[in-house]
Amino acid sequence: MWNNIVNTALLGIGKKTLSPADLPADLIPVAESVLGDRSLDSETQFLHLAAVALNYRQSGVNAVQHGGVPLSPAPPEEKPFCNTAAIYALQDALDMDLLPLVTYWLEACYHKEQIVVPEYIPVLLDTAVSQKRIRHLAMAVCGKRGQWLSAMNAEWQFPFALSNEERWQTGSAEDRRQVLLEIRQAYPGMAREWLAQTWSQENTSARTEFLRILRTNAGEEDLSWLESLQERNQKVKDEVWTLLRLIPESFIVQAYWQLLQRSVSRGAGKALHISLQLPLDKTIVDSGISTISNQKNVSEEAHILFQLIGNVPPSLWESHFNAGKEEVIELFRQDDLGKQFIPALIIAANRFKAVAWLRLLLQDTTTFYPEGMPLLTAAEQETYALSIFSSYPQDVINYLSNRTDEWGLTITGEVLKWMARNPYQYTRNFFDKHVLQLPPAIADELDKLTPEEPAYQATWRNTSEHIRKLVSCKVQITNAFK
């Protein structure tokens, strides 16, 4: 009906007119009366009919009556509802349309073993339709009534009943990757066994992705299976080599070390004697060691040695030189060529989780090595980040942004002070995404971070207010579930 009226208005009544048949049966008598009134011109008749149709349309319709539809009442809830303060906090998070804050609310409610009040169930389930990561949380905090209500909407019927093994056997590619990662983190051997059982059925892309997941908690127990693989695809072979290079007991790491023992020795005093015999064994090259330097001032020998040193546990140097960690590091630092390999030692310390080595290597460095930071405590990470922030501000910010925990107040202040001087690079959108990393106490420090440049001050004031609003909502959520 309404489309006919709109089309008539667009085309003009000279080309198209309305007839009673174009209108609902209830309006036919009115239409005949209007069209039969010869005192009205065509345009006026059309406007009268359009006005009547508009009022009819806005009056709504009666709901379809379906008698006998079986509908059992929702089962009683087993958990308590969250308090009013929590609902206010949830509404604020929803009003700001910020998934990090909504997720934070869901996690807090879930861990407190509470559920949301019924009127918020539809909006949470609707949000979960497009946000797979929160589906489990959303369904959990919607309680029994949420399960009951989801049965009436196909979009809300999320597949939560599947076990990890069922997800692995029948899930989507993304679901299988997720469950393999979860199992690998908690039960490394089980993850390897599951993958070994389905290996012959996996395609090249899946094999590459699954091997990349096995980097988590790679260990000696993986060697037998990894060394038995006979792969033709180069990408899969590269991932197998990557895994073998993570395991100190693997034949390839041992081959690297044998070559290094012959190539690096201790000379008189604190001098090192470094000499590499070329060409390399084919297995060494096949394992991923590049033989061509991509830097003009680095020889091929130094390029190869750098890679080899980065792929053996740094503790091996202690027995090789019969010296402690500090003395070994000093030997490399005092040698003109050896000091070029300090970054390789840092890579090795990170690769083989040699935390004590990493701490010593990072003490006096002026270079940023983000790959080693996850092994340090949060406080150690931030101390290191502060020491090199002025030289690597964006690199530090990128690293901190990928952390999931809350930043310390000191490093947050330094980061925001720098952002205040670069307002067009770090806009509100950045803070929307990373509100959970901001400590609540930073709200009281924002005015102190105002840049000296007048051109940036107004922008920073607006950004500061936005940050306060975000942090306030985060604090509301925290306090509501104390």
Description:
The chain has about 475 residues and is an all-alpha fold. A hairpin with a 5-residue loop joins strand 1 and strand 2. The longest helix has 27 residues. InterPro entries: DUF5691. It comes from Chitinophaga rhizophila.
Offer a quick outline of the entry.
This protein has 482 residues and is mostly helical. It has helices at residues 2-11, 28-35, 42-58, 84-95, 99-111, 121-130, 135-141, 143-150, 164-170, 173-186, 188-198, 204-213, 223-228, 234-244, 251-263, 282-286, 300-309, 315-321, 325-334, 342-351, 355-362, 378-388, 393-402, 409-420, 428-433, 454-480, and strands at residues 264-266, 272-274.
What's the helix count? Answer: 26
Stretches where pLDDT falls below 50 for ≥5 residues?
Answer: none
Going across the biggest sheet, name each strand in turn. Answer: 1-2
H/E topology pattern:
HHHHHHHHHHHHHHHEEHHHHHHHHHHH
Kindly report how far apart the N and C termini lie.
56 Å
Indicate the overall shape.
Answer: elongated
Average pLDDT figure: 92
The main pleated sheet reads as: 2 strands, antiparallel
Helicity, as a percent range = 55-70%
Number of domains: 5
What class do helices, strands and sheet pairing give? mainly alpha
Radius of gyration from the alpha-carbon trace, in angstroms: 33 Å
* Total DSSP E strands: 2
Strand content: under 5%
